Amino acid sequence: MSDLSGKTAIVTGGASGIGRGITLTLAEKGADVVVADLNDQPRTPDTTPTLEAVDDETDSRGLFVECDVTDYDDLVGAVDEAEAFGGVDVMVNNAGIVHSVEFFETTDEDFDTLVDVNLKGAYYGCQAAGERMLENGGGSIVNVASTAADQGFVEPGSILYCAAKGGVKSMTYAIADLLGPEVRVNAVQPGFTDETGLAENHDPEAATARAEETVMERLGTPRDVGNVTAFLASDQASYVTAESILVDGGWVNIGGP
Question: Which UniProt keywords are given for this protein, alphabetically ordered (predicted)?
């Protein structure tokens, strides 16, 4: 089991969806957690607030910091907040949005909105946490990319999303080279994941069809992504860097559409 006892993790977009699953998993494995998000409440109705769940279900400590990942100063502020628990050891750049826009209708505003959150936010997160980790002797950064970094999606209006997530994946390798050996930098690539805004925006038949395309014959869950993230964050992955791990039930490699 990945042991994160004594470590402090920051999770951007950690209040909802995949970020919530990552936050709870890291806390269950012993890490104190800083949830860096625009809102402290999950987007899914009738869901226990993430920090409340950390407090009720784990022995770890947690705090919330309001954070816009497109603002470098906000990310530095999240890193500063982690000092309350001893300083950042693990940075998970998870915050992201789905913004469907057709290729020939893309505006500057569309481009900036999606790329700023999904790519620039991860880039800034690596900067803010990476600098502090180097000062403190090391750490682990995990960027949340997507299967869209490996397999292009045309519909519904996902080309720009693919471009941003592809950037996250290749950026991960370059930053690993820059920050190593003190700081390990890796990525996870979730597939279609249940209990997220993406799943909620698809009808049940579409979700079922996607599940049937995987080897595992089900959709992923936020905890599936959390478990892989916890491994990459832990000392068990001490020789793993510049890597990207698909968490998609085999969908990309066995031939999704």
Answer: Oxidoreductase
Is 122 in contact with 168 (CB distance < 8 Å)?
A: yes
| Phi, psi angles (nearest 5°) of residue 14 | -85, 0
What's the pLDDT tens digit per position in 117-130? 999 999 999 999 99
pLDDT tens digits, one per residue of 84-110? 999 999 999 999 998 888 999 999 999
**Distance from the first to the final alpha carbon of the chain:** 34
pTM, rounded to two decimals: 0.95
Residue type for 119, please? Answer: L
Q: Is 109 exposed, middle or buried (0-12, 13-18, 19+ CB in 10 A)?
A: exposed
Cα–Cα distance measured from residue 250 to residue 213, given in angstroms and rounded to the nearest whole number:
9
What is the Cα–Cα distance from 89 to 60, expressed in whole angstroms?
Answer: 15
Is residue 161 annotated as a catalytic residue, yes or no? yes
Which DSSP helix (H) or strand (E) runs through 90? strand 90-93
Domain locations along the chain: 8-250
- Annotated active-site residue in 72, 123, 124, 161: 161
Query: Whole-angstrom Cα distance, residue 91 to residue 89?
Result: 7
Overall fold of domain 8-250: Rossmann fold (3.40.50)
